[in-house]
Write a structure and sequence with these properties.
Elements lengths: L15 H12 L8 H13 L1 H21 L6 H16 L1
Helix pairs in contact: 1-2, 1-3, 2-3
Length: 93
């Protein structure tokens, strides 16, 4: 892993590419317990890196807008059944 210079010219523990690559999993709390160290590293990087923090903030706002826009939409029951059937088939194969 390559280090990136931080604001005080000290190398950062985590580079921006890694943070951006893992941002969705980080925001969705999908990093496993084995990734617990990564959660701390990503958070420390966001605390130190304004461009990555802005990227995170944009993603948070987009998610809020989508959630608000789709809050009243429900999938038709037939679609739900079809998706659950396909999930079951994939898991059993």
């Amino acid at each position: 892993m390559s280090a990136v210079e931080g604001p005080s010219s000290q190398p950062r523990e985590t580079d921006c590419d890694e943070v951006i690559d893992r941002l969705y999993a980080f925001l969705d709390h999908e990093l496993s317990t084995e990734d617990e160290v990564d959660v701390g590293r990503i958070q420390r990087h966001l605390d130190e890196c304004a461009p990555c923090l802005r990227e995170r903030d944009v993603e948070v706002v987009v998610r809020q807008v989508v959630k608000r826009a789709c809050a009243s939409d429900c999938a038709p029951e037939t679609l739900r059944v079809k998706i659950l059937t396909q999930i079951t088939q994939v898991r059993s194969s």
